[in-house]
Amino acid sequence: MSKLGRLGAATLAMTTGAVLLGAAPAAGAAPTSAPCATEGTSYQYVVVVKPHTREREVRGEITGNCGRFDHYYPEIGVAVATSVDPSFDRRVGLDKAYSAKKAKDAVTGLGRSRTAKLESVQAVVAGDEDLSGQSWDMRAIGADKANKIDQGSRDVVVGVLDSGVDPKHPDLVKALDPKLSAGCETGKPVNEVAAWSPLGSAHGTHVAGTIAAAKDGKGITGVAPGVRIASVRVINDEGMIYPESAVCGFMWSAAKKFTLTNNSWFADPFFFWCQDKPGERVGFEAIRRAVAYAHRAEVLTVAAAGNFALDLTDPTYDPAAEHPVDKKCKLLPGGLPGVVSVSSTGFDGSLSSFSDYGRGAITVSAPGGDFTEPPPGQGPGCPLSTIPDGQYGSMCGTSMASPHAAGVAALIASGLPFRSAAHLRFLLAAQADPKACPGGDERCTGSRLNNSFFGSGQVNALRAVR
């Protein structure tokens, strides 16, 4: 996962929403008559209000409390604002305004080094020759055989919400749709090549290749080379993804009627977001509303489960940032209702050493690699895929598992004349290959048909096209 990583991001509130603008300030709010600060660190905020509140009311509340109005999604009642005044969130109300960047600057113990190393490019090779022989990951899910039957439909669009996709990579040019791509770093979608192209990270391009790299006899072939992809850059130049960017990505996917999105990341600055903690619950609610809206628009959300070898159902600490956590705290977006959460398997089919798990927290599993090398001729232990500048590289992580599942979901969708997000999620799980818990590992609970390591099993591309 990009941070599922910090490549993360890097390169993955609960308010009721009933608080109306203009209501009495929350407890501890600063007097709105106090002068606005004109100098200081500028922070961006998400502001959560009642859905369908009129924009002029939202704008007035923001500007009247020392902020700049940036963007507004009335369908879900989430606005984006910027302010240099350190009391902006208190003025608006701590139950309505939150800056993840401000929180990130305040927290200690940021612990992403493991995932950054995990998801860095392990090997780089040229792609003038056919590299499919090294794609053990594709053979593990039957994608090589599925491609001979059906490569997917151009009517299916997979949004790659990530660090950007190289628009010039020869294996991705045909699949990538510039008209449907956007940059979401500021919380407002920008449909310009510079806004959705990579800033230096190979993560999004690698994810995109796993989904839809061309079957052209060169390089690698994706799970569903016949579908379209859209690059939606939600990761900023620091390698972080904040709620405003995530909200923008999900709302763009709904507006453009994507079939599904792949999300190989978790929202910063935390790994586990707590629904009952001041501030955090605002960011949580903003993302929750956006994912729910996309789901209602029949856009399926596929997400990586994380790379910290944690039980997602019983967190005892946050590996990304120090703050109190308990069972009410969830991974975003992977822990939200209706999301397909994907764990990772290695060459031998076992749970990857780094993969998170949890009973009810994992929907399906897919190849994400591990650090034990396969037999000679099978390829590197970390899946091989596209990276910028027309090259190919191997990367490990649940970030790599998630796009395998997204590709299979795209194949399933290609064969459905009428589809809903819920139906697509059901079929992806129902057509997976069940995997039993390994003997002697007490972390794995449940039956062969559904357990904490593999969910309903490993995704099956061949079954998706039959």
UniProtKB/TrEMBL annotation:
UniProt similarity note: Belongs to the peptidase S8 family.
Protein name: Subtilisin family serine protease
Domain Peptidase S8/S53, first and last residues per copy: 154-437
PROSITE patterns for this protein: SUBTILASE, SUBTILASE_ASP, SUBTILASE_HIS, SUBTILASE_SER
Signal sequence, start to end: 1-29
Keyword tRNA processing: no
GO biological process, one term: proteolysis
